[in-house]
Design brief:
The protein has 417 residues and is mostly helical. It has one domain: MFS general substrate transporter like domains (Growth Hormone, Chain: A, Up-down Bundle), CATH 1.20.1250.20. 81% of the residues lie in helices and 0% in strands. It is built from 20 helices and no strands.
């Protein structure tokens, strides 16, 4: 569980470091010749690139995870991810090398996205395949703590650095420091993952010769409906983070005129609360099932989507904090139950591939959310309800998928179970 948790923390940290960077600094450093709106869209486009290539990474590493093992594959993904993130902190800017700067930034995001495609599914499986299925809900939820931890660490860095550095230092070199933190985090992740053993379920697959020859093909050939259900179930849990922690921060600064430090504080408060709620939701999933927890979270998010963004227009700090808490807790239910829901749907021989593919396809959609929401803002003249539309759509898809998943009685491919 600790090896999974630290790995997902590094994954989330890598994502949120670049997400905050995209919202606050990337436009001026890597797209300085564009106006402010165009530079923001350009920064969000680079952010989206790593999501777009995730399915390719899911195919590569998902197949490896079902063929050579969970542990060995996770060692590969965490190394690639940590190194690529750290290298972003060493990149020259547009002022130094011109167009080469955004090109190199995009290439590193591509590498990062490939590794991320195989990270989440393996992290969930390392946790759940070491425990009794009756405890799967909790142990599938615990790696999800990596997301708020990554958010907290990122927000803390972006809160502290402007205090100890001048704006000019922050713009010239201070922005690099959060990316460089990835190197020591990578060292801790590798230490933990080198210390763990392969999961008992995968050992059984090898001993009984029940591995699929090409697991990725088996996922699509045998279980396309299950993949669609898993993708839809993941949309809210992943997409709400892109909407709340990337787009809403940029929108809050540029349209609602919040101070970005206030936005980071509010985000951090919401993330700290998740450190408590995610394990509680995992325990609840043990009792009622992960799919039902996902469904309840989606239904609640649908109810509060528009009222939340309406109140945010009043632009007071207490309302901002309440928005981040309420808008975080309900989608967090869907996030906490996601790994257990997918592990209940898919069996051992294709589980790594199926989880990785479903998660990465949902991540592609989520990676486009800040860009799409920014476009919707332009089309509606930043009407207060435009982010609510996006959040409501995500909730509807996840609610429908969770209702279907709750009726699943056995994994679609349970040869090892």
């Amino acid at each position: 569980m600790w090896a999974s948790f630290v790995g997902t923390s590094l994954e989330s940290f890598d994502f949120y470091v670049f997400a905050y960077f995209s919202a606050l600094f990337s436009g001026s450093l890597f797209f300085p010749e564009l106006d402010r709106t165009a530079a923001t869209i350009g920064a969000f486009s680079v952010l989206a690139v790593s999501f777009i290539v995730r399915p390719i990474g899911a195919i590569i590493f998902g197949n490896l995870g079902d063929r050579i093992g969970r542990r060995r594959t996770l060692l590969l993904t965490i190394t690639i991810m940590g190194v690529s993130t750290g290298l972003i902190g060493l990149l020259p800017t547009y002022a130094a090398i011109g167009i080469g700067a955004p090109v190199l930034l995009t290439l590193l995001r591509v590498v990062q996205g490939l590794s991320l495609g195989g990270e989440w599914g393996g992290s969930i499986l390392v946790a759940v395949e070491h425990v009794n299925p009756k405890r799967r809900g909790l142990y599938a939820a615990l790696p999800q703590l990596g997301s708020p931890v990554g958010t907290i660490l990122t927000a803390a860095l972006y809160l502290i650095l402007p205090v100890i550095l001048s704006p000019s230092d922050m713009a010239s070199w201070g922005w690099r420091l959060p990316f460089l933190v990835a190197f020591p985090l990578l060292a801790v992740s590798l230490y933990l993952r080198l210390a763990i053993d392969e999961t008992p379920l995968f050992k059984t697959l090898v001993a009984t010769d029940k591995r699929e020859r090409v697991p990725v093909l088996a996922v699509f050939r045998k279980h396309p409906v299950a993949v669609v259900v898993a993708v839809a179930a993941a949309l809210l849990g992943i997409g709400s983070y892109s909407l709340m922690n990337t787009y809403t921060i940029s929108y809050g600064v540029t349209a609602l005129h919040f101070n970005y430090q206030d936005l980071l504080v509010a985000t951090t408060i919401g993330s700290l609360l998740q450190l408590i709620t995610i394990p509680l939701f995992g325990l609840w999933a043990n009792r009622i099932g992960s799919a039902r927890v996902v469904a309840i979270g989606a239904a609640g998010t649908l109810l509060i989507a528009f009222p939340m963004y309406y109140l945010l227009q009043f632009a007071t700090f207490p309302i901002l904090v309440a928005t981040m808490i309420i808008g975080g807790i309900l989608p967090t239910m869907s996030w906490a139950g996601l790994g257990g829901l997918m592990a209940d749907i898919f069996g051992g021989p294709i589980r790594y591939s199926a989880l990785s593919i479903a998660y990465s396809v949902a991540a592609v959609v989520s990676g486009l959310i800040p860009l799409a929401t920014a476009g919707l803002a332009q089309a509606t003249n930043s009407a207060w309800w435009h982010p609510g539309i996006v959040l409501a759509i995500l909730s509807i898809f996840t609610l429908a998928a969770a209702i279907v998943a709750a009726r699943w009685r056995h994994p679609v491919d349970d040869l090892a179970d």
